[in-house]
Amino acid sequence: MRNPKPQWLRRRLPTGPEYERVRDMLRKNRLNTVCQEAKCPNIWECFSQGTSTFLIMGSCCTRNCRFCAITHGSPGEIDSEEPFRVAEAIESMELSYAVITSVTRDDLMDGGAAHFGKTIREIRSRMPHTCVEVLIPDFQGDLSAVNTIMKAHPNVLNHNIETIPRLYPSVRPGAGYHRSLGLLKTARRIDPTVPTKSGLMLGLGETPEEIRKTLQDLVDAGCSLLTLGQYLQPSKDHLPVERFIPPEEFDSWRETALEMGFSAVASGPFVRSSYRAKGLYEKVTGI
Questions:
Q1: How confident is the model at residue 258 (pLDDT cuts 50, 70, 90)?
Q2: How far is Cα 254 from Cα 252, in angstroms, rounded to an integer?
Q3: Where are the domains of the chain?
Q4: Angle of helix 208-220 relative to helix 177-190, nearest 10 degrees?
Q5: C-alpha dihedral (213, 3, 53, 225), degrees to nearest 10
Q6: Top-level CATH class of 12-285?
């Protein structure tokens, strides 16, 4: 039985001409967004403001994380034209800040790193002043894949730690806590000028001590941008919510994280890894 949502998790869903325009443009260009596939609660707000997080390499993931609504199964072939269509969409939307993420593709030799790189470069060729943030999978620990992406010069390298290490077997089967930390460390070592970013979901049964330890691990890995949000159960087949964290507790965690050494933190019930990503980037860069 699902826990009833508290009042602070109830919100109006804004729609309108801009929301419909973005949705139609994505459909016509055969593009996926994590906003749609992961059932993000911010989709109406972001679409209404002319933004979205592009999901490349299909909409089917080779992993089956128990918190995620994205379809699990055997994905199809990589669409070699997708980077061009993503760049065209970003140009059409006149985005000054674009977020690119993907499903996990353990079926590919490089996990899709080359496709990420191609997408970044195509965006740069069309929109040279657009900032590009990439939210990447763990590539099964293949650090050469991280190098491939960093060579394409993203403005932000984002990889979510998602939860505390004790919960990895139930929340992220197939992933590894220290593998993810290693990825962030590697990205930072390859190019220290590119901020690294990560995020956690709260409400899965973690303790304050475990959260604090995970935040310290991220700081030690060189991570400067952080997002903290409420886990919401996508369906009855996913992990249940153990606790709904009140907004004031998210505010407290934001202050704690800043004191620990993060440069910019977004923390709140509706915060997701790419939610208002431009604003977070501007706080750390001063742009």
A1: very high
A2: 5
A3: 12-285
A4: 30
A5: -20
A6: alpha beta
